[in-house]
Each structure stands twice: as structure tokens, then as C-alpha cells.
Amino acid sequence: HSSNDTQAVKLTGEEVAKHNTREDCWVIINGRAYDVTEFMPEHPGGPKIILKYAGKDGTEEYAPIHPPDTLDKYLDKSKHLGEVDMSTVQQEEKKEDPDEAERQERIQRMPILEQCYNLMDFEAVARRVMKKTAWAYYSSGADDEITMRENHSAYHKIWFRPRVLVNVESIDTSTTMLGTKVSIPFYVTATALGKLGNPEGEVVLTRGAKKHNVIQMIPTLASCSFDEIVDAKEGDQVQWLQLYVNKDRAITKKIIEHAEKRGCKGLFITVDAPQLGRREKDMRSKFSDVGSNVQNTGGDNVDRSQGAARAISSFIDPSLSWKDIPWFLSVTKMPILLKGVQRVEDVIQAIAAGVHGVVLSNHGGRQLDFARSGIEVLAEVMPELRRLGLDKKIEIYVDGGVRRATDIIKALCLGATGVGIGRPFLYAMSAYGLPGVDRAMQLLKDEMEMNMRLIGCSSVDELGPDLVDTRGLSMHTTTITDTLGLNVYDPLVGPQEKAR
Ligand SMILES: Cc1cc2c(cc1C)[n+](S(=O)(=O)[O-])c1c(=O)[nH]c(=O)nc-1n2C[C@H](O)[C@H](O)[C@H](O)COP(=O)(O)O
Description:
single chain
């Protein structure tokens, strides 16, 4: 017998192409064919996107949205039809994307990495060089994006009361988060679909976090599989898990137990997204045919252009409530924190429920518009916790709009243990890959050392409320124009106008 007799005969493209209807649907993903006929109605992204690739190769659109092990995990083995001889598959002729040529042009002209001096520089470059759909997904906020802008401008309402003639020769920016010593008080927060911006996805952030000894929070909705991200960590590098709770608690339990087994040192339950917010830039982008059954109640003809986020989040359990917390505490030894708490009453309830911490956050302005910024909520929370003698009971984090080390310092002065940073690292990764993430983190470290020196503190435990003036914080209008931010804000570009 020659060796190839034992080799299963590969399917041909023409064979697969015969199965291209709703009643009989095969799709090619990563060189293998799958019968998705029965699965189609349950697809969170709706049947339309699958039908678009019925009988064809759907790999390119599939890869950024689905972790590689998705089909192995969720599609019955009997539907795995085996390898396809890709030389016999007729590749879709690429619809000429008029912007693509211009985008490639902009990539040729983009600034060299060393010309990025702050985190906003990465955003400005990313906006020009990223694919429209990726930029739309990362940059969008909910509704009018007021909260998304407020997150950053809130920091402009806090002023320093620096002290002088303090010996600041040596500066130590390190701190401890959930028992892990980190070199600077920020972590890489969970942001979904990392492969939209960079073909390698979240593992690029893993490598950057390792280099700078900061913690990475792994998103439930990562493009990379959970194990790929954990396998990418080195040595005693620490990672946390961000969890969207599934209506099917058995799936959630498996995810939590697996994360604990793989060494995750914190479980962050996202509590501000019982339904994903309405992100109109994301909805306008190409994902329009990746509909979702989250919002529509009607049949197939309802407008399902809810963007990528909604398409991949229909599993999230909107019935999650305080009564579920004891169950989480019973299934894991990992510290449990609630991510997306937005008022002091809920922080007090979180302490009573026995969790280990909260992240004061509005999901980067992607959920409830007109939610207050994390930093403003922090200024409400800490005095009240001190009054009740509860301020040492849990660790308090904030995220949203952190773009400068002075933002980090302000948050620590007000009592945060650390801050989460999202978009800046996505933009750095999308525009410049790992070198971009590396530079972004190094810039923050340099800024942190300089600003600690200038406010007269040599270590983070000296940062206290006496160093800041927050009287303007609750005023929601500010005359200080956020020029950097405004320059990258992405207004609606009508079909006849050309994006600048
Ligand atoms: C930018 C971004 C943020 C997302 C995010 C995706 C992107 C592109 N996604 S989302 O698809 O559902 O909206 C998540 C997510 O998976 N889970 C989560 O807990 N937070 C998610 N967040 C919120 C994130 O964890 C921080 O709260 C937020 O990014 C902090 O604001 P900055 O981006 O301004 O730093």
C-alpha cells in the first residue's frame, strides 16, 4: 500500500460548492469543510453571514471573530467533513475596496514608531491605517459617545497640589495588584476581537505585558483561544480572566475551572453589559451582514445589522444578579472582582457579597451613555468607604480614558489600587505590532517617573487625596478642549465625502 492510500481523500472545491443552500450548507474554514446546516439557526451571528459563504471558503471573515478552537468546541464531530484540496477551490475575486488602495498608501506614509510620543499618537496613526471595520469596532462608543469622551475629559477636571523640596532622587512606580507585584500601576484590560487590529491578536498584548511586567486581563471574547493566550505567557507572568456570564452556567463553570487550572490569578465578572451597547460606528461598518439575534424579536427580515459585538454576545445572561455571587465564590478560589460598577451603593453591596474588588468602569463608554466616568465614581466612592471604615476591605480599580501617567497618578491619589487601559494598546498593536505596545508601555513608565518626581512623591503609597483638587470633577462641561482627543474623533463620513 502506498502511504497516500491511508490518507483520506480530500474534498474538492466543486464538491463543497454543491452544498450551498440553507437546507444543505457546507463551509470551508482553514482548509477543512464543515456541514453547518443544522447549526445555522443557532449561530449567534445569525444565518445570513453563513449563507454568504455557503459552499465557499469563509476563512478570512471567520478568523478575527472566532477563536481557532471554536468549531472543535461547538460543532459536533460528525459535521467535520475533512480536508479540502484548496487548489480546487475557486477563490472569491476580492471585491475591489476603493479605500484599500488609499489605506495601503497611508500605511506607506505612516510615521515611524519613534515619532509616537504619547498614547494619543497611536490613536491618530491607527485611525489612518486600520481597516475601517476594525477602527469602527475599537473606536466606537454607545449612542452619542458622550461617556466615551467624558472618560478622558474627566481627568482634565482634576488638578494637582504638588509638594516641593522633597527628596525625589529615586522613584519606585511599582505596586501590588491582587497579591502580584507589578512595575507600574496599570493593567491591560479585556478588549474583544484582538485579531481585527492585528492578525496575531491578543498574544501580542501578552508579550508586551511580559516585557513590562504588567498584568493582562484575558477577554472572554478574544480572537485568540484562551489557551493560546495563556500559552503565550512566559515564566511567572500573571494573567486575569474577564468573564461574560453565559446563560448556560455549565459552560461558565467549565471556563472558570479551566482558567483557574491554567493559573489565572483573578476573575473579573463583567456586570455592566447585560446587553451590549449600541455602537453605531460598529454597526455602520462591514459587519452589517453579521446580524445578531440579541435584539431582534421578529424573523429574518428584521434589521440585523447590529455590528460584530452584538453578533458575538447573544450568550450573555441578562438575568445575572447579586443572588448569583455566592455560586461564583463556591466554584473558584481565584479572587473575584466585579467589572463595571458605577456607584458607591453597589461597591458597598459588593463588599457585603464577599467579592475581592471592583472595577469602577463604564466599559469605555460602550455601554450606557451618560454613565459617569470611572474616575468621577472613584471620587464619590472612596470618601464614603473611609467614612464607613470599609476602604481597606477590597481593591478598587478604575478604567476608561486613561491616556497619560498623570491620569494613573490621579486615580491612585483618589484611592485606586490601579487602572485598566484598553484602546491605546489596541491602537499601538494595530499600527505597530509588538514594538508599538512596547513603546506605549515604556512611554507611560517614563511619564510616570517624571510626574511622580514633579508632584513630590517617590513611591505610589505616598499618593493621597491631599495631592489633588477635585472640586471641578462633577461639573460635566469643561472649557478645556481635549485637542488631542478631538483630532482623532471620527465624525460620520458621508458616502460622497472622503475620510481625511
Ligand atoms: C475598546 C474596547 C473595550 C472593551 C471591549 C472591546 C473594545 C474594542 N469589549 S467589548 O467588545 O465587549 O465591548 C470588552 C469585553 O469583551 N469585555 C469587557 O469586560 N470589557 C470590554 N471592553 C471595555 C474595556 O475592558 C475597558 O472597560 C475600556 O476599554 C476602558 O476604556 P479605554 O479603552 O478608554 O481604556
